[in-house]
UniProtKB/TrEMBL annotation:
One of its GO terms (cellular component) is ribosome. Keywords: Ribonucleoprotein, Ribosomal protein. It comes from the Eukaryota. This is Large ribosomal subunit protein eL14. Residues 46-120 form the Large ribosomal subunit protein eL14 domain. Residues 10-39 form the KOW domain. Belongs to the eukaryotic ribosomal protein eL14 family. Residues 139-171 are annotated as: Disordered. It comes from Cryptolaemus montrouzieri. Residues 160-171 have a biased composition (Low complexity). Pfam families: KOW (PF00467), Ribosomal_L14e (PF01929). CDD domains: eL14.
């Protein structure tokens, strides 16, 4: 699959290293093969250069002219509603969940572990009950088998038991 995220003017990125780690910025200009000029008007990141290996490119791109001023970048950022789109993305939700897990106390971690244990026991019990029912129905492995126990069909009274052989013709 071809690349979808290019280093280009207007591309939004997350800073992965340095004092502005975790903040959103927009690429304003490409300086050379390893450095770009970034600006984060709403995330309080001052305009400046940053190495590309310190950025994680996002899928968001805003339209503004080449080497636009901070005022123009801020206007385009707000018009494109980048902050709202970012907060709704799966990436941002994972980062928020990770931060929340880091803030847990010992007692919170204990409660979480107990809740997971209970959930897993309930889930396992439901799974094994379904598996047992499927095994009885014969649908577990895709074969229709007779059920074990007293679920076998009973022969009708007065009917002969089939022997599996054809009757002998009379002479």
């Amino acid at each position: 699959m071809p690349f979808q995220r290019f280093v280009e003017t207007g591309r939004t990125a997350v800073v992965s290293d340095g004092p502005n780690k975790g903040k959103l910025v927009s690429i304003v200009d490409v300086i050379d093969q390893t450095r770009v000029l970034v600006d984060g008007p709403n995330s309080n990141v001052p305009r400046g250069q940053i190495r590309l290996n310190q950025l994680h490119l996002t899928k968001f791109r805003i339209k503004f002219p080449f080497t636009a001023s901070t005022r123009v970048v801020r206007k385009a950022w707000n018009d494109a509603k980048v902050d709202e789109k970012w907060s709704e993305s799966v990436w941002a939700k994972k980062v928020a969940a990770k931060d929340k897990r880091i803030q847990l106390s010992d007692f919170d971690r204990f409660k979480l572990r107990r809740a997971r244990s209970r959930r897993n026991k309930i889930r396992s019990l439901a799974f094994f009950n379904l598996k047992k029912a499927a095994s009885r129905d014969g649908t577990l492995y895709g074969k229709k088998k007779m059920a074990k126990g007293g679920d076998k069909p009973k022969p009708k009274k007065g009917a002969q038991k089939p022997t599996g052989k054809a009757p002998k013709p009379k002479k």
